[in-house]
Amino acid sequence: MARVHGIRSLPLLLGLWAAPASAVTIIETSVTHDAGRYTVRFDVLIDAGIERVRPLVADYDRLTRLSPIVVESRVLATRADGGQRIQVTLNGCILIFCKTIKKVQEVRTAVDGAVTARTDPGESDFTFAEERWRVLPQAQRTHIRYEAEFVPGFFVPPLIGPWIVKSKIRTELETTAARLELLAAEEHAPADAPVQENTQ
């Protein structure tokens, strides 16, 4: 059953930040951990049309607008087939452990619009990471389905560490959805009408 959240905060991986309330509808947020591997499912409805949302999701040079823990993002290369190689730098903490984390990913968009981002472990702080998402129209709103699996290549404190990571991923996803919705509204809001002087 769908749950309407007053969005709290979100690190796409680590971090904590308070976000304003929004009309985002969270259908599902699931984060599991097993033997060092995290599996994420996130299903959300954004209160904005797909023509506003899709360009924001695919603006890989400006992902800092969507998450407070993303400190830098940029497109490294664009392939002849449309695939892109991107780099994302994150900065976050678990308990007293803080780290700058880098991901270099190969991003490809299928004919049906499904996007897959596979992380290059040789140039990233993950031994494995793959993200998949769909951006779908639903009446005047946008339905985003996101799935990910990743294995950190950096130290996560045992016992309580994975629990904190899972909690922060959930709030980070919800905050990103809230920011996405706000950006879609702000960037397409009508300009203020010019003030006309009374010359009489």
Q: Please state the CA-atom Rg, rounded to the nearest Å.
A: 18 Å
The geometry reads as globular
**Whole-number count of domains:** 1
Q: What's the story with the biggest beta sheet?
A: 9 strands, antiparallel
Described by its quaternary structure, the protein is single chain
Put simply, the count of helices is 2
Average pLDDT: 84
Q: What CATH architecture do you see?
A: 2-Layer Sandwich
Distance between the termini: 60 Å
Strand content: 35-45%
Q: Strands of the largest sheet, in order across it?
A: 1-2-3-9-8-7-6-5-4
Q: Which spans have pLDDT < 50 for at least 5 consecutive residues?
A: 1-21, 193-200
CATH class: Alpha Beta
Task: Give the helix/strand class.
Answer: alpha+beta
What's the total number of strands?
A: 9
Give the CATH superfamily. Answer: START domain
**Overall helicity:** 10-25%
**CATH-defined fold name:** Alpha-D-Glucose-1,6-Bisphosphate, Chain A, domain 4
Organism: Candidatus Muproteobacteria bacterium RBG_16_65_34
Keywords: Signal
Signal peptide: 1-23
Protein name: Ribosome association toxin RatA
